[in-house]
Amino acid sequence: MSQGEQAQTRAMKSLAAVLLVAILLQLAGCSPPPDPVTCTDGTSNCTVTNTYGSFTDRTICHAANVVYPSTEQELVAAVAAAASAKRKMKVATKHSHSGPKLACPGGSEGTIISTTRLNRTVSIDAERQLITVESGMVLRDLIQAAAAAGLSLPHSPYWYGLTIGGLLATGAHGSGLWGKGGAVHEYVVGLRIVTPAPACDGFAMVRELGADHPDLDAAKVSLGVVGVVSQVTLALQPLFKRSVTFVERNESDFTAQVAEWGRLHEFADMIWQPQHNKVIYRQDDRVDVSAPGNGVGGLFLFRSVPTALLVGGRAIEEQLQENGTDIARCAAEQEGATRQLPAFGFTNDGISFTGYPIVGYQHRIQASGSCIDGPEDALLSSCAWDPRIRGSFMYNSGFSVALSKAPAFIADMLNLRDLNPDAFCGALDGRVGLVLRYVKASSAYLGKHEDSIDVDILFYRSRTDGMPHAHADVVDEIEQMALGKYGGLPHWGKNRNFAFDGAIARYPKADKFLKVKSRYDPDGLFSSEWTDQVLGINGTPNIIENRCAIEGLCICSDDSHCAPEQGYFCRLGKVYKKARVCSSEEDY
Ligand SMILES: Cc1cc2nc3c(=O)[nH]c(=O)nc-3n(C[C@H](O)[C@H](O)[C@H](O)COP(=O)(O)OP(=O)(O)OC[C@H]3O[C@@H](n4cnc5c(N)ncnc54)[C@H](O)[C@@H]3O)c2cc1C
Ligand SMILES: *[C@@H]1O[C@H](CO)[C@@H](O)[C@H](O)[C@H]1NC(C)=O
Ligand SMILES: *[C@@H]1O[C@H](CO)[C@@H](O)[C@H](O)[C@H]1NC(C)=O
Ligand SMILES: *[C@@H]1O[C@H](CO)[C@@H](O)[C@H](O)[C@H]1NC(C)=O
Ligand SMILES: *[C@@H]1O[C@H](CO)[C@@H](O)[C@H](O)[C@H]1NC(C)=O
């Protein structure tokens, strides 16, 4: 190692050490995330962004005004006001977590309807095991309300800062193949949705969709284009406990296990750490409530971190990305791995990890997100991605591959890794790895039509538009392989533009969805440029310009779409030859 590399590695080591101490100290305060909607003039002249603040100059989103209904009546009035003026509208949520520009009303003169104040429990029927909540309720509160009545939502995303309206609209999920499976929309048994209406009906109406209503399959995963969901009724189960063990194995049977593991354990998932040649299998099953244990699933990524550490960590990451070598990047990863919290931060008692299995109540295991809790501490600490500080900045790709094709897909990824293992150090965020979760086939028109494995990839994003990350070709090839070769479906709430190009054609029931959409919202008031592009109604989400492939705005077809000045050229994929990836010169 050169002196520079040694210095980088040393810096990384000391940073990792401080970070660990800080996390172990369980910081008390924490600045909750900023409001995604800001207006210069009260509730007029507004912009909306997402929780990462990643709507850049190109995707900046303006709206004429914002409204904050706190009852269904006020919501109906808000929709009616916009509809009577033929103004575009769109829902924004408390934190707006989707990466794509979904929260933006079309044009720049639209209305933002914020569901922040629609956050109450409407009713709980303990006997029939049903909960009805307003759509702006944050998952954390929903899970707590259910538990207080002795009930569980069996599956949910792992991050509890999402709202029920937003997570349904994008088809969000946890992991599981048993029963109805890992996606939350499978547990929806009723919705109340506010849509535009003819003038004679007052320009807006509430539609009540019961469990057997055919339109429920359009409304439960809707990208927000059929109206505003006002209330959601979910089928719950009696509160249960889970027993979780993270089993670390080599990759020898990874391809065989990918289709099997989900059948063996109710809450199974997998984490692949390609740079460490490891797979971590989540062995996670329901156990009787009498089983002893009070474990907590506090994933370390979702805890608050002191600002100084976030800024310092990012500076090192930027340096490693821009000027580091494979050796330095892999050394930093190795170091990070040795200092990781055990069990990803899960604990046996809310404080420390003392051994497997971790047994605890569903509501304390299924999701976490303590960085959104707690009082303002003037940004001394925050969620790692808080845009008000120069901390973590990432892309998050997420796509599903049918289970029947998953073994071949995994085999291809292993081949790609074996061609240049060191490339995987800088290419992917090393803190967790590739997360693989199970989602079952759904009747939702924009849901999965086959049992699938959903892959999540976090990777470095430069704050300079068009600046490549190290070994950008690795992620490019994995994504194109999943979507192109294996017919994968992009997660509606994640991904870069190109992933959605043509994807709607792979949804066999897309036409049924569009029919309901044009019945509910004939003038397309809830549609935007973005939703028209991804739904194949008008245009393409691809943007062809210099360096477009670096930002995932296109698949490269010319060197200028990469970053030739930084040594990144448009090349063929190494395993999937039809891929076109931005690759640094020295690889060829
Ligand atoms: C830290 C983090 C962790 C995540 N973890 C997971 C995970 O474990 N699993 C997973 O699947 N995804 C996960 N995601 C992605 C996430 O599921 C999606 O981004 C989700 O849609 C965001 O929900 P939200 O409440 O923030 O909605 P937003 O992003 O604000 O909204 C999403 C869309 O829904 C529409 N919408 C919202 N509410 C309504 C309503 N009431 N009526 C009509 N339309 C509405 C909005 O207009 C928008 O089009 C994660 C994201 C982050 C940032
Ligand atoms: C509207 O907001 C923009 C910034 O987003 C600002 O430049 C402009 O002056 C504002 N216009 C009015 C009329 O306040
Ligand atoms: C619901 O929203 C209101 C207004 O934003 C807020 O005062 C209240 O604390 C919220 N309730 C919960 C349970 O978060
Ligand atoms: C992988 O682990 C299995 C046991 O789970 C072992 O039999 C095998 O030898 C290991 N393979 C390698 C390459 O280490
Ligand atoms: C990388 O090196 C260049 C040239 O020495 C320098 O200008 C740049 O600031 C460095 N980047 C980082 C993040 O340190």
Describe what you observe in this structure.
- InterPro entries: ALO_C, FAD-bd_PCMH, FAD-bd_PCMH-like_sf, FAD-bd_PCMH_sub2, FAD-linked_Oxidoreductases_BP, GULLO2-like_C, GULO_Plant, Oxid_FAD_bind_N.
- This is L-gulonolactone oxidase.
- Its EC number is 1.1.3.8.
- One of its GO terms (cellular component) is membrane.
- One of its GO terms (biological process) is L-ascorbic acid biosynthetic process.
- The structure is a single chain.
- Helix content is 26%, strand content 22%.
- It has 588 residues and is α+β, with helices and mostly antiparallel strands.
- Among the domains are: 78 residues, 2-Layer Sandwich (Uridine Diphospho-n-acetylenolpyruvylglucosamine Reductase, domain 2), CATH 3.30.43; 118 residues, Uridine Diphospho-n-acetylenolpyruvylglucosamine Reductase, domain 3; 46 residues, no CATH class.
- The protein has an eight-stranded antiparallel β-sheet with strand order 17-13-15-14-20-21-19-22. Strands 1-2-3-5-4 form a five-stranded mixed β-sheet, covered by helices on one side. Strands 6-7-11-9-10 form a five-stranded antiparallel β-sheet.
- β9 and β10 form a beta hairpin.
- The longest helix is centred in the first third of the chain and has 22 residues.
- The chain is globular.
- The mean pLDDT is 93.
